[in-house]
TrEMBL record:
The chain crosses the membrane at residues 36-54, 66-85, 97-119. This is Cytochrome bo(3) ubiquinol oxidase subunit 4. One of its GO terms (molecular function) is cytochrome bo3 ubiquinol oxidase activity. It comes from Roseomonas indoligenes. It is found in: Cell membrane. GO terms for cellular component: cytochrome o ubiquinol oxidase complex; plasma membrane. It is a multi-pass membrane protein. InterPro entries: Cyt_c_oxidase_su4_prok, Cyt_o_ubiqinol_oxidase_su4, Cytochrome_c_oxidase_bac_sub4.
């Protein structure tokens, strides 16, 4: 059976390109060595900075240190998404970015709601009998 007949028949073993169809990922963007190295260097820097902040006791207030570390963690997540996961508005027609935004909205609503409920449960909790003795 010729290659044309096999393709028309739909029974081609590895396609007309000699079996290289396994490497076809459609229009998905692939990074170059330079972009991977840029991502790696940024990720390393964004890991070293929080370590130095904690070990060097840079801020006297631990809340400020925690806030800076969380902000750097968010930046590192973005670096990973761009340089290693190749997520952008063009990938898969923008659906991956839309799915990410939806996921982030759900996570923020869930976390904010949980914190709000826990705060109000703590603030409005009824006094227990052993606490009532101290009300005088």
């Amino acid at each position: 059976m010729s290659a044309e007949a096999a393709r028309a028949d739909g029974h081609a073993a590895h396609g007309a390109d000699g079996g290289n169809w396994h490497d076809d990922h459609g229009a998905a963007p692939h990074g170059s060595f330079r972009s991977y190295m840029t991502g790696f260097v940024l990720a390393a820097i964004l890991t070293i900075i929080p370590f130095a902040l904690v070990m060097g006791d840079v801020f006297s207030d631990t809340r400020v240190t925690a806030f800076v570390i969380m902000a750097l963690a968010v930046v590192q997540i973005v670096v990973h998404m761009i340089y290693f996961l190749h997520m952008n508005s063009r990938a898969e027609g923008g659906w991956t970015m839309l799915a990410l935004i939806f996921t982030l909205v759900v996570v923020v609503i869930t976390l904010a709601g949980s914190i709000w409920v826990m705060y109000h449960m703590n603030a409005n909790m009824m006094l227990m009998p052993h606490d009532m003795r101290n009300m005088d």
